Amino acid sequence: MTLARYVYTPDPQEGTLLTPINNSQAVRWFIDNLPINRQGMDEFTRGLEIGLAHGYWLLGPFALLGPLRNTELGLVAGLLSAISLVLISTIGLSGYASLTTDPPVFDRKGWSRLAGGFLIGGAGGAIFAFVLLQFFPLLSAIAKIP
């Protein structure tokens, strides 16, 4: 099954949605290897991997651009904000589980496992980023990074 089958019509009045981006093999390979699309993964593992990435990258904007950025508590506030946003996103995933799609991607139990993995992974990713940033002076002294 190819993408071109669904977005290309020979009628010039209807147009075509094919672009070099959505029709390239490299982009299609990248999309197919994202955790949500990867074949043979458990739902909890998918959620864990997605959550780790989101928790990790959410800490930076909250810690460095938040209202407490110039205080001693800026990093802690960023950690709590990142975990809170991951929690809100988990509630959204749980709400999405109640919708029916055709064909269903996961059943209700699968979405619940994905949301649980997302929550654990998101909190873990934010905590990991917090630890790296908190102990960066120590790590740079050990590695002798100028």
TrEMBL record:
Domain Photosystem I PsaL reaction centre subunit XI: 8-136
Intracellular or extracellular location(s): Membrane
Keyword GTP-binding: no
Transmembrane segments: 50-68, 75-97, 117-143
Record membrane topology: Multi-pass membrane protein
SUPFAM superfamilies: Photosystem I reaction center subunit XI, PsaL (SSF81568)
Annotated InterPro entries: PSI_PsaL, PSI_PsaL_sf, PSI_suXI
Pfam families assigned to the protein according to its UniProt record, in alphabetical order: PsaL (PF02605)
GO terms under biological process: photosynthesis
Alphabetical list of Gene3D superfamilies matching this protein: Photosystem I PsaL, reaction centre subunit XI (1.20.1240.10)
Alphabetically ordered keywords of this record: Membrane, Photosynthesis, Photosystem I, Transmembrane, Transmembrane helix
Cellular component GO terms held in the UniProt record: photosystem I reaction center
Family of the protein in this entry: Belongs to the PsaL family.
Protein name: Photosystem I reaction center subunit XI
Originating species: Gloeobacter kilaueensis (strain ATCC BAA-2537 / CCAP 1431/1 / ULC 316 / JS1)
Taxonomic lineage from the root: Bacteria, Bacillati, Cyanobacteriota, Cyanophyceae, Gloeobacterales
